[in-house]
Design a protein that fits this description.
Elements: E1 6-10, H1 17-26, E2 32-33, H2 42-51, H3 59-76, E3 82-87, H4 96-103, E4 108-113, H5 117-127, E5 133-138, H6 142-151, E6 158-163, H7 173-186, E7 192-198, H8 203-210, H9 216-232, E8 241-248, E9 253-260, E10 264-268, E11 273-277, E12 282-289, H10 293-301, E13 305-313, E14 318-325
Parallel strand pairs: 1-5, 2-12, 3-4, 3-6, 4-5, 6-7
Antiparallel strand pairs: 7-14, 8-9, 9-12, 10-11, 13-14
Helix pairs in contact: 2-9, 3-4
The chain binds N,N-dimethyl-L-histidine.
């Protein structure tokens, strides 16, 4: 019989870091930058959900397809009992198949970790109906949340960490590897990590995914400036910045930028900042690195994991790699 659904959330106080990050990114000598993690306010998270529906953006459908096809195979490889911690759960849509498969085997403790409170609320609504699931959301940065989940571990329990959606691609490569090491240090031998990564593919397929004809990705990118206007009392004119997506062949990544179309000054009152932009100058807002399957396995091996299994989508080249910690 299904156990009663239990949901709760651990919230953090609003971040004071945003102004500091905007200040340091926009005053950086040379290339101005803004961290991509700030895309995901309520508007940005909603726009990202629309991106995932775009015909040109096959990434999230590929990840979901793999989980849908292989959920039982993944669950069969996991020890019992296992609790699930998801880094950057978003609304939890991509995780449903896996949690349902796991719930057919055991009562599920699911800990979504996300800096967006709105995303956690949607996640609880979306997944709370799965039989015998207990959801406790953590409004935290990934590692802080994972540390808290690890502190709740009961004797004999293993942890399965989910890092889905190829979010690791949004880190610099070195920082991504460092991050895998940090996750490993929180885990015990015999825990698991399911890591999703978008794979290399033709530029003709990649660029429209990040510069779609409907302009949804452009709106997602520009919303970062709108968010700074809303939250930090800035006066960015959104129509004076154009969305740019380009592929760097050497780094194997798509970069998103916002290019100033005119010479202009912007005032960010709550960051105590006045910034000058020259026409043509860009703010680098995101990198989305692409991988190959063997590279992911080797990356894990360098940081205390062994590849237990890997599943690939061929329609939109994408991998789900199941690591066990050694
Ligand atoms: C969340 N992340 C993996 C997405 C990506 O593809 O890099 C974010 C995104 N940026 C533009 N479109 C989607």
């Amino acid at each position: 019989m299904a156990a009663p659904m239990l949901t709760a959330s651990v919230f953090s106080s609003p971040s004071a870091d945003f102004a500091a990050d905007v200040r340091s990114g926009l005053t950086k000598p040379g290339q101005k930058e803004l961290p991509s993690k700030y895309f995901y306010d309520e508007v940005g998270s909603a726009l990202f959900e629309v991106i995932c529906l775009l015909p040109e953006y096959g990434l999230s459908r590929a990840g979901a397809r793999l989980l849908w096809r292989h959920a039982s195979a993944i669950v069969n490889r996991l020890p019992e009992p296992v609790v699930v911690a998801e880094l950057g759960s978003g609304s939890g849509t991509k995780t449903r198949w896996l949690l349902e498969a796991l719930a057919r085997r055991q009562p599920v403790k699911y800990f979504p970790i996300d800096i967006s409170r709105a995303a956690l609320s949607r996640c609880q609504l979306e997944l709370g109906q799965i039989p015998s699931i207990n959801i406790v959301g953590f409004e935290r940065a990934y590692l802080d949340g994972l540390l808290e989940v690890a502190a709740l571990r009961q004797p004999g329990e293993r942890i399965l960490v989910l890092f889905l959606g190829s979010t690791i691609g949004n880190f610099d490569r070195a920082a991504g590897e460092e991050f895998l090491g940090e996750v490993r240090r929180i885990l015990h031998p015999g825990d698991f990590l399911l890591l999703a990564t978008d794979l290399e593919k033709p530029v003709s397929q990649l660029l429209p995914a990040y510069d779609d004809p409907a302009g949804v990705t452009a709106a997602f990118n520009r919303n970062l400036l709108a968010r700074i206007n809303r939250e930090l009392a800035a006066d960015f004119h959104l129509d004076r910045f154009e969305h740019v997506a380009r592929y760097d062949v050497t780094e194997r990544r798509v970069e998103m930028h916002l290019r100033s179309t005119v010479d202009q000054n912007v005032h960010v009152a709550r960051a105590g900042l006045r910034v000058t932009f020259q026409a043509g100058e860009t703010i680098w807002t995101e990198s989305s690195h692409k991988f190959d399957g063997d590279e992911i396995v080797r990356m894990g091996e360098r940081h205390g994991y062994r590849c237990d299994a890997q599943w690939m989508d061929r329609e939109w080249t994408f991998a789900q790699t199941l690591f066990v910690t050694v």
